[in-house]
Specification:
This protein has 203 residues and is an alpha/beta fold. Helix content is 28%, strand content 19%. A five-stranded mixed sheet has the order 4-1-5-6-7, sandwiched between helices. It has a two-stranded antiparallel ribbon with strand order 2-3.
């Protein structure tokens, strides 16, 4: 077990002497060649989604850890960043998309919902009522109802890709896609695509 006196901040870039944010950001991006953000469900049956999406987009996954001369892990060859959240709903991933763009650059954001998902087994009204009955908590205004569950796969993916596209944290050049993954066959089916605009010369 780690000592309570362990200095975790010794490993924080921003805590180092002479820290320069612009330089660190540039070097960090070189070591993490991110291209595609994948948002998918935490259901273990959905574990094949990153590999399927990487194949679809020509990405590298899982890739390998890049080490320095001392054997320290300083980077990776993967071009995929996985954001794993309940039901693969975009609402939970918006901050991750913004941070990924700032640190690493993003070309594609891919939302994947999967068949037989637990998020399709309940309704917004049902989970709200259950929390009130079982925990004495009112969560009716905690999340937008459109992002709580999945009642229609196409509608959910249309909603989520639109949510990502209209988020200020998603640059205009990023392509946003919505897919359904069949957990029985491993097949991906594209439901929606919202292609980004060309970058300006000032970008």
């Amino acid at each position: 077990m780690t000592s309570p006196n362990y200095d975790f901040n010794a490993h924080a870039f921003s805590a180092q002497p002479g820290y320069d944010e612009a330089t660190v950001r540039k070097e960090f991006a070189k070591l993490m060649p991110l291209r595609t953000v994948i948002i998918y469900c935490f259901d273990p049956r959905a574990a094949g989604i990153p590999e399927a999406v990487a194949k679809e987009f020509g990405d590298v996954y899982p890739g390998e850890v890049v080490t320095d001369a001392d054997g320290n892990g300083i980077g990776t060859t993967t071009t995929v960043l996985n954001v794993v959240v309940a039901g693969g709903r975009a609402m939970d991933a918006l901050r991750s998309i913004t941070v990924a763009q700032h640190l690493l650059g993003v070309e594609n954001v891919v939302v994947v919902h999967h068949t037989h998902c637990g998020a399709s087994s309940y309704t917004a009204d049902g989970i709200i009522a259950a929390f009130k009955h079982e925990h004495g908590r009112d969560i009716s205004d905690l999340y937008p109802r459109e992002s709580v569950c999945i009642t229609d796969y196409a509608a959910s993916l249309e909603h989520d890709t639109r949510l990502i596209r209209t988020s200020p944290g998603t640059p205009a050049h990023v392509n946003v896609y919505g897919y359904v993954y069949d957990i029985e066959t491993g097949e991906l089916t594209r439901v929606t695509a919202d292609l980004g605009t060309a970058r300006s010369s000032a970008a």
